[in-house]
Specification:
By secondary structure, the chain is mainly beta. It has nine helices and 28 strands. A hairpin with a 4-residue loop joins strand 25 and strand 26.
Length: 447
């Protein structure tokens, strides 16, 4: 079950109070580091979360990494009935932190001052979920592969403005993670505040998602987040680049074409690339509205106008009918043999691609040498339900315009979000990172 479906994400953003901030993003500098440091990601109910240590002494809070929003928020000590029985950690105890600060009304960064004389933040959802918080600040640093805090603040620590939640309902109450970390293009996002406070060397970060069979409170490792760039120890292939226009506040891509490839496979380069069926849809229709890359959304959602041509291509390549929301019994072998969806993304216009890179579109689209391909195998767009002992599709064609490439699209790739260069850099590898965080997955980079 998705934690934050895309249509709810869209409605949430429309309901968020957009009063202009009155304060400045600049904060007093704490500790300076110009090193890249990978932090482990863990698997929630369809999304990935990270440990965030907050306060003095440090208290751990787990937060969903969400490139589709710009506010970090966690339940605080005065939060009433806020899901402590579901979350991994207890509420954040601000009274126990020596470095905790409430933000006065004349210094709001995230949202303008409210009638209650504080920086009140309210986020609501069409299906009924909501949360209320007030803006605060404290010293934070990202977790490492340990269960206990450092004796002293990490060299990568900085003072973060975030939402101290006092009320929440719906999905935010029942999720596994405690809160959320906003990672979009806004000035209040986690990475932006880290950069302004010299806690990360540049305006970029990477997300490398793997997938575990199930989520639980023991927090199985499921990837890596690297602030300030991408850890090259994860990579063993040539990087490819997709265009990333920094407009509208979110990370976006342009889909040129979509293909179905018979025989499955996780790699872009495959002997099965000779048996590829292009989905018959005009790229202008496909990209009407923004196509967002959103790590906080579990599934992938595309235009309703893609439904019929996708079904036709599926029928042609498999002989079977495609059914959205399909539930089927499959053996592991049958799952792996299902078609791989290949997304052709527009290449980075300000740079060049290495002709030897395996992620280029030229292998199936000869006139698109600078475009790149991203492979989405059935193991990513189909999800197994233990209770029903069936697989369900997690790609949907119901958007009136625009769409989102969610966590299941990002799975198995290292994606570098490079704001300075307006790139998303993609890389698909088979690198063992056992020495790094005792994980194992493939890597790609968007720039």
């Amino acid at each position: 079950m998705p934690l934050i479906p895309y249509h709810i994400q869209r409605r949430r953003r429309r309901h968020l109070n957009k009063n202009p901030p009155q304060g400045s993003i600049a904060q007093p500098k704490v500790n300076v580091s110009l090193e890249l440091r990978p932090s482990p990601l863990y698997q929630g109910y369809g999304t990935h979360f990270i440990d965030l240590w907050i306060g003095t002494p440090s208290q751990r809070q787990t937060v969903i990494v969400d490139t589709g929003s710009g506010i970090t928020a966690i339940p605080c000590q005065d939060c009433i009935n806020c899901g402590a029985e579901y979350h991994i950690d207890s509420y954040f105890l601000e009274d126990s932190s020596e470095s905790f600060e409430d933000i006065s009304c004349d210094k709001c960064l995230i949202i303008g001052c409210s009638s209650s004389s504080n920086c009140k933040i309210e986020v609501s959802y069409q299906e009924g979920s909501s949360w209320i918080a007030h803006e605060v600040s404290d010293i934070v640093y990202l977790g490492e592969a340990i269960e206990t805090p450092f004796d002293h603040p990490s060299k990568d620590s900085f003072r973060l403005r975030f939402g101290c939640q006092t009320s929440l309902t719906g999905l935010f109450k029942t999720q596994l993670a405690d809160g959320i970390m906003g990672m979009d293009l806004s000035s209040s996002s986690f990475w932006k505040q880290a950069y302004v406070n010299d806690a990360t060397p540049n305006q970029s970060f990477s997300l490398c998602f793997s997938r575990q069979s199930e989520a639980n409170t023991k927090s199985s490792n499921a990837g890596v987040m690297t602030m300030g760039g991408s850890d090259l120890r994860l990579h063993n292939t040539i990087m490819v680049y997709a265009d990333q226009p920094n407009t509208g506040g979110y990370f976006k891509v342009y889909i040129v074409k979509i293909f179905l490839r018979s025989g499955g496979g996780e790699l872009v380069a495959s002997k099965n690339n000779t048996n590829v069926e292009q989905i018959n849809i005009d790229e202008e229709i496909l990209n009407k509205g923004d196509i967002m890359l959103d790590s906080g959304t579990t599934n992938t959602y595309l235009t309703t106008l893609l439904s019929r041509p996708f079904s036709a291509a599926w029928k042609k390549i498999t002989g079977d009918d495609w059914k959205e929301n399909r539930s089927v019994h499959l053996t592991r072998e049958q799952l792996l043999d299902m078609p791989t969806i290949l997304f052709q993304l527009r290449g980075w216009e300000k740079g060049f691609q290495d002709d030897l890179a395996e992620g280029l579109a030229a292998s199936i689209s000869p006139n698109s040498s600078d475009d790149i391909l991203v492979a989405m195998p059935a193991t990513h767009y189909m999800e197994y339900s233990k209770s029903k002992e069936k697989y369900f599709s997690r790609i949907y064609f119901g958007e009136g315009d625009g769409g989102v490439l969610g966590a299941n699209f990002m799975m198995g790739h290292d994606i570098l979000f490079d704001v300075d260069k307006e790139e998303l850099a993609l890389r698909k590898v088979h690198a063992s990172i056992q020495q790094l965080l005792k994980l194992r997955h493939s890597v790609q980079k968007f720039r």
